[in-house]
Amino acid sequence: MNNIQSTNWQTMRFKPPPPNSTIGWRVEFRPCEVQLTDFENAAVVCFVVLLTRVILSYQLNFLIPISKV
């Protein structure tokens, strides 16, 4: 798991499912730690919120079979 977490994507983290749970893997978005202004931090957060709302409203499925990874 540490290999996945140590990728170049510092703003995204993969979270494995809890033991004996029916939920799957989760992706956690983190705003960039170094931004020039508060406005840029707010822009990143707003973009992620809008992106998640689009994914949920259109019920998009981004599952990839492990054989294709």
Provide an overview of this structure:
This protein is α+β, with helices and mostly antiparallel strands and 69 residues long. The chain has one domain (2-68). The protein contains 2 helices and 2 strands; from the N terminus they run αββα. It has helices at residues 2-5, 38-57, and strands at 12-15, 26-29. The chain has a two-stranded antiparallel sheet with strand order 1-2. The longest helix has 20 residues, at 38-57. The two termini are 15 Å apart. The model has no long low-confidence stretch (mean pLDDT 79).
Offer a quick outline of the entry.
This protein has 69 residues and is an alpha+beta fold. The chain has helices at 2-5, 38-57, and strands at residues 12-15, 26-29.
Secondary-structure map:
Layout: H1 2-5, E1 12-15, E2 26-29, H2 38-57
Antiparallel strand pairs: 1-2
Main traits of this protein?
12% strand, alpha+beta, 69 residues, single chain, nucleotide-binding, two-stranded antiparallel ribbon
Radius of gyration: 15 Å
Strand content: 5-15%
Give a short account of the largest sheet.
2 strands, antiparallel
Tally of discrete structural domains: 1
| Terminal Cα span | 15 Å
How many DSSP H or I helices?
2
Please give the share of residues in helix: 25-40%
By secondary-structure content and strand pairing, the structural class works out as alpha+beta
Low-confidence stretches: none
Total E-strand runs = 2
Tell me the overall shape: extended
Output the helix-strand order.
Answer: HEEH
Calculate the mean pLDDT score and round it. Answer: 79
User: Major sheet: order of its strands?
Assistant: 1-2
Transmembrane segments: 42-64
Protein name: Glutamate--cysteine ligase
Family: Belongs to the glutamate--cysteine ligase type 3 family.
GO molecular function: ATP binding; glutamate-cysteine ligase activity
